[in-house]
Amino acid sequence: MTETIPAEEGHLDLHTVTEVVRQPLDPPGAQWRAGDAFLAGGTWLFSDQQPDLRRIIDLAPLGWDALTVSESGLEIGAMCTIRDLYALSAPGDWPGAQLFTTSCEAFLASFKVWNAATVGGNICMSLPAGPMITMMVALEATYTLLSPDGSQRVVDAADFVTGNNANILTPGEVLRSIDIPATALRKRHAHRRFTLTQLGRSSIFMIATQHQDADDLLLTITAGTTRPVRLAFGAIPDADELARRIDELPDDIWFDDPNGSPDHRHHLATHYAEEIRAELSAGGRP
């Protein structure tokens, strides 16, 4: 049974909202209708006008916020906060877990936002500069999506975001959890990030991973692109091959906003990719 209250009792600033579902069904999208929105941390939802919004479905009561460490890897509930992910003490043989700190600190947000913003919310916003997106794609995560009829599907993080503020979620479908495999967390890694100001939004954010005692390379490019790009190499490429693979990306994949032009971001990607290639060629030592 759902509990619905009039919007004025919820003290909302979103004046078009007439209902808030405080006790959602599981699955929460079972009674989805046009004008609905899922509420996770709300750090974006309450930050801007939402003229098409009529009803909010609060996901907090479902308790999807656990961090579960196991031999197979890490399961992250979609409602886990950025603060809790940042504070996680990961196993010592997971060097890739250092990227939790790196990615959380890439947020253009204060500690107050960290306390409310959720991992799943950042992923589902699907903005180019979403740092949780960068990390999940680089760490080869999969997402479990829960449909309105209760069925589930599992998708690769690299296939979830399709463009600026666009993803593969269907109406009423919600991100339930994220799974990061231990094999990816045991990899060495390198990253580069550029911002126009010290605490600004990412113009580009790149992460590369490599198996221990191996010569492969998995390079993820985000923030400078409208959707995540992941380039895989069975062995460390030479500088020319790496630059060629980046040059072969379609022209329309490079993001254009006040934080950088497509040409600038293309240049940064090529420059940082070569730095990363050299670092991982040296066994992970910059």
Automatic annotation (TrEMBL):
Upper classification of the organism: Bacteria, Bacillati, Actinomycetota, Actinomycetes, Mycobacteriales
Gene3D superfamilies referenced in this protein's UniProt entry, alphabetically: 3.30.465.10
InterPro entries given in the database record: Diverse_Substr_Oxidored (IPR051312), FAD-bd_PCMH (IPR016166), FAD-bd_PCMH-like_sf (IPR036318), FAD-bd_PCMH_sub2 (IPR016169), Mopterin_DH_FAD-bd (IPR002346)
Domain FAD-binding PCMH-type positions: 4-185
Superkingdom of source: Bacteria
Name of the protein described by the UniProt record: Aerobic-type carbon monoxide dehydrogenase, middle subunit CoxM/CutM-like protein
Molecular functions (GO terms): FAD binding; oxidoreductase activity
